[in-house]
Specification:
two-stranded antiparallel sheet, alpha+beta, four-stranded antiparallel beta sheet, 6 strands, elongated, single chain
Length: 161
């Protein structure tokens, strides 16, 4: 994984934290899990925690680097079946998350044949429903992370160390 060649400690901290959270979010949302309420609660708690940290630090990094124009499209790896690409500004969507009053993880059934989980459905956490004073949205998790890695970190200001 590439690391951010930062100008100062704060920029490096914001970038590294956003990267770490983004990797965990992408991994959790692109994995197929057996339907199990206890397991889903653990995964939801991790996604919510990482999502808040990701949104704060990615937004701070974008602010410091004047990279506020990235547009979120569809998830290139695992598009949620119920969502159209949001085609919205990443900066604005991260702001919605930072100011969230509630975040709910949306689970979808994966179409796996044969089903590897005998007696349980294969599920994936494809999106989150975010509600705040600034509005509400259903956001594909993979779209947020892929836009961050593909557009924000791919900008010319970032280099591999």
């Amino acid at each position: 994984m590439s690391a951010i060649a930062a100008n100062d400690w704060l920029e490096r901290h914001n970038g590294r934290t956003a990267q770490d959270c983004g990797v965990r979010l992408a991994a959790a949302s692109h994995a197929v899990w057996p339907s199990d309420k206890n397991l889903q609660v653990l995964i939801e708690d991790q996604i919510k925690s990482d999502l808040l940290d990701f949104a704060f630090h990615a937004r701070k990094l974008m602010e410091r680097r004047s990279l506020k124009s990235a547009t979120v499209g569809s998830d290139p790896l695992w598009p949620p079946s119920q969502l159209e690409p949001p085609e919205k500004n990443l900066w604005a969507l991260l702001g919605l998350i930072v100011h969230a009053d509630s975040i709910d993880v949306s689970w979808e059934q994966a179409d796996l044949q044969p089903n590897p989980y005998k007696g349980r459905s294969p599920m994936f956490a494809g999106s989150v429903k975010v509600q705040s004073d600034n509005g509400s949205a259903t956001l594909p998790i993979g779209s947020l992370t892929s836009t961050f890695f593909g557009q924000v970190l791919a900008s010319s200001d970032f280099q591999e160390e």
